[in-house]
Fold this sequence. Notes:
alpha/beta; seven-stranded mixed β-sheet; 29% helix; PolIII_chi_sf; DNA polymerase III subunit chi
Amino acid sequence: xxxxxxxxxxxxxxxxxxxxxxxxxxxxxxxxxxxxxxxxxxxxxxxxxxxxxxxxxxxxxxxxxxxxxxxxxxxxxxxxxxxxxxxxxxxxxxxxxxxxxxxxxxxxxxxxxxxxxxxxxxxxxxxxxxxxxxxxxxxxxxxxxxx
Length: 147
């Protein structure tokens, strides 16, 4: 079973919060896959990660760029994991089958969107029923607090 962390974004956008989490993933020597809602969001996130300033560089790829197995961070709208990632990031309310194949799963959701919060609650219940270890993280003025 995976450790599934729910990350409640309350003070920053996904575009601001995700690069730091991905940077820590790479610092830990892990690979990541980020599952997006659709191909348009993959393109948006690809652009956003190239513009990220903290960390200043996040090596990543998409199906459009190729060289899947070389990419430390893989962006996708599907369930493919061609880079051997052990960390899974879910955005856009994505849920995932096969979460047990990952060490850690990060479910990021917008705390200012009532529908996103309600959907995250449903994903929490489903993960709990599936027997995953759950953690809940909420943004504070500086960093995250585990609740």
